[in-house]
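Question (not urgent): is this output format expected?
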Amino acid sequence: MAMLLLAPAPAASTAGLARYGVTAARIALGLVFTLAGGSIFFLIGHPPAPPPGLAGTFFHAFFASRWVVFVDLAELCAGILLLLDRWVPFALVVLAAILCNILVFHVTMQPQTLPLPLILTALWLVVGYRHRATLLSLFTKG
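Got this back:
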């Protein structure tokens, strides 16, 4: 019995950990953006209170112009594609544009809430690295 407790655990396969890590990152990213995008059905009629300052002014324009509908539908579609594991590179391209805007907003107007966009960007990079060959093909002639 004591030998079993002191025996070293078998080494985990690095390839298995990487595969499951990328899958977990894809699912987490898909869940976040599916839920965030799906929130448009609840928020469009009753948007939450805007934050103070410049972020609140941006927030007001974002909802008053209905630009939020376009962004949330893009998030919803990309999140669903990630969850279904279909057209993942396309979903990543769509989310890259959305994540850039989210990061710029948080860096310039609401830096106190920057950790979540940084985590989402890290998840995007994990999944994007798996699909790097397809993503890099966007930058080649042909």
